[in-house]
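Extended Data, panel c. Modelled sequence:
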Amino acid sequence: MCAMRNIDDQLRAGKDDPDFGHKCAMLLLGMHRWTNQQNTNVTFTDTGNLAYQISIRSTLDPTKYILWGKNGNANNPYVAIPVCYLDNGNHTNRSLTDRDGQELPATTYAETSFITKQALWYLWNQIPSREEIQYFVEGYFNKIDSSMVQFPKRLNNIFRNISSDNRKDHVSLREQDQHNEQHWQSARLADLANLVTRNFVKNEDQQSFDEECTSFRLECMEHLHKLINSSDNNSASGNATLLTCALFLGLLDWIRSSHHENNSDTEADPTSRHAIGDENMQALTSLLLLLSNLCKQYPLIALVPQSDTQPKMLFTLRFDTTYPSLTNPQTWPQRISEAIIGPTHLSDTVNLGFQSYAARASHIEVTPIEHTDVESVKEITKEPPSKSENIDKASNKKSDIKMHFIAGRIHCVRYFSSHQPITYIQLNIIPDQRTLQYSLLWSLLLAALSTFNLVSLFGYYPMISIFTGDNLIAGLSMIFTLWLAKTLSGINNSLSDHVRQKLDDTISKSLIFYSISYASAFLNLGIRYPGDHEGLTLPQLPASIIKYATLAITILTGLVTLIISAKVCLWSRHRRKANDQGEINNKPYPLDRVSKSECKESNTDTLEEAPFSILSGRKERERVLKIINEFLENHW
């Protein structure tokens, strides 16, 4: 099917449809209006990757079909359908299939860029005051670029520069700098959307509004000077980045000017003024937020033959991605304690993020990780609770996410009405019961052997005989056998390896201290009972020094193994309580909420991007999303 496509035919097809831009804007902005369910399944693979399987169930009105490539395939043209947004990360082994499992082609970079630019231009043309905005923006354009380039071409270059980050081969900036620039642009666009919506709020705090505008201007000017002084500003992408910053400053000046007019009483017809203000606010906010989405994401657009389209369609997206393993900072007391008795905490944490505003209902399922169990699941919130929420702390601790276990899988669901663009959950992972019991037996065995060494020092002859020269080989063989048995316990899964490593380190330290305890007890008894160690050459040091030094070492190492055994016993007791609680919670129940500043440090962080995710943690989130929904209602 891909061989029949011709880029010129597709671009011509878009230009032939007078409603093309409108369709593109509605589909890219309003996925939650026609996507019924998005189900994300996450699997931690043995190779240390994350395997994603995202199922999207949609019901799309045929009047919103984007016919694509009809000139090259007139009998059965493609229909371009935006399936979901993906971040600009590396997704390997990506595949997109339909309900029957047939592979579907996706749009190329040039095709995706054409669709997104058509959507952006449609939104720009819906702004009643766009000529006024152009006047403010052109002033900054001319200061940065003295060439006589028309405003539409400059604006088109900005649209292309912002939405082209999924093609990285043309970018001269380093990858990390490019990521930072994308995030900066996305955040500033969200700031502008907030200022636009506040511009038309009645009884707005004038001082607060002015302070926010001033802060935004200073940040943009500082960033602009930084870009001018960089070595990349002479390239095409560097010039477009400068123009993007100029666009932000021009929009800010227009916002402040219109804010002054909106709060004055000189207008002859205030009703008309507010009507135009609402249209400006809705269209400009939608434009800014779509641009913000495109800074760090791109729409994955499937091409479906028109004959295969159905009223209800199912798409399945699969891809693999890596996840970083993070090392949490430790204080010196923690490092010393961990060096002696091993890790003090049994559990590990994994953060996951999933899109929760791209469909009416968003689900996430986490496949069980081998040799581990999930102790608890919590929602991570970026927003601090408001004063009203603090009054009822009990209700504030509960999330609207419903979670339950299905055949060992964690299943969470969040609905579109929550107005949360992205949902973060934290999994608290612990080793399974069998693994912990195995480690408990190891720790008890080593504690018992170390206790045996301690008791032998008190002169009980049957025990002393074990430390004679004749039994040295047997003692060393036992220690070697213990090390070999522990080493042969293999671990397959990368994440479970990290979780079980705590138990492995704990038992290794216990075995080390037992080996030292055995050696010191052997030397101590060799000094005290030399007749039993005939044929062995003991160190030529004062007997009293060796006797008391080895006695102290035997006691200390024995105590450490006992402390380690007690630690594993506490872990086992905590594990049984968690298991009992998990058996009770078989029915759906709301998650507990914890703020990002209060949650545990994560050992594995796998947070994906999502449409409008830049609004997460912002107090204006619901207001901005409401305005975009009003725009969609009026133009759908």
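Confidence is low (pLDDT under 50) at residues 166-174, 387-395. This feature is highlighted in the accompanying rendering.
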